[in-house]
Design goal:
Blueprint (H helix, E strand, L loop, with lengths): L2 H10 L9 H27 L11 H24 L5 H4 L6 H25 L4 H9 L3 H31 L4 H15 L5 H21 L3 H14 L3
Length: 235
């Protein structure tokens, strides 16, 4: 290998400082989107969940689907982020340093996401009473389902977007631009073409990216992501 090849090779996968390239980060996010929303949700879920309109009702089929989803998506993210190329989880931001601060920032982030979602529904015509009922009238079983979904999203999506993509963008862009671009990719990743859905996910992406920057580790956006799901679920 020549000297120039040696300098180019890390860009194709990972860098000496532990960050991945933008291209690899985007490809991992694309692979996750196809696997999660096209293969698992569109093809596997109908085989396991009898009533997709009541997907968040706890049933053996729902929990079997969630277990398969967590296993498959977790394996993809782990392999692409930490196995090839070999990279410590700490390099992505998974660290317990400053844990109390990260958790506190994450809780604030979760509340910010709930407020953002409530604002979206208000703009769409919902009353405060309707929003409160949507937030509060959930069974304990549904909250368990939301927790499982939130935990899976917190581990995989925070690794993909705030652990891989955001640091890669920060190498090329100003901090605010990296936050916005990573949030835009996060919004598109969910494959929801509705303007309200795109704008809401964009806002969530900004909140999670800011939580990573202010919290100092991926623990902060992971807490925000998981707690938001428990509080709001599929509102």
């Amino acid at each position: 290998m020549t000297g120039s090849e040696a300098r180019v090779a890390p860009e194709a996968s990972g860098r000496a400082d532990g960050t991945l390239s933008i291209r690899r980060s985007l490809l991992l996010a694309l692979g996750q989107a196809i696997l999660l929303f096209v293969v698992l949700h569109a093809l596997v879920a109908p085989l396991l969940v009898a009533d997709l309109e009541r997907f968040y009702t706890p049933t053996p089929g729902v929990f079997a689907f969630l277990l398969i989803t967590a296993t498959v998506t977790g394996a993809l993210v782990w392999f692409g982020s930490f196995t090839h190329p070999r990279r410590p989880v700490r390099a992505a931001g998974w660290t317990t340093d400053g844990l109390a601060r990260a958790v506190a920032v994450g809780l604030v982030g979760a509340l910010a996401c709930v407020a953002l979602l409530s604002l979206t529904y208000t703009v769409l015509g919902a009353t405060p009473q309707e929003i409160w009922r949507a937030l509060s009238e959930r069974t304990p079983g549904e909250r368990v389902v939301f927790f499982c979904i939130g935990l899976q999203a917190a581990l995989t999506e925070e690794t993909l977007f705030r652990g891989n993509l955001l640091p890669a963008l920060e190498r090329r862009l100003p901090g605010w631009a990296a936050v916005l671009v990573s949030a835009a990719v996060f919004a598109v990743y969910h494959l929801n073409p509705q303007p309200a859905g795109l704008l809401t996910k964009l806002g969530f992406g900004v909140v999670f990216a800011c939580a990573k920057r202010f919290g100092g580790s991926l623990v902060a956006p992971a807490v925000a992501h998981a707690v938001f799901w428990v509080l709001a679920g599929a509102m």
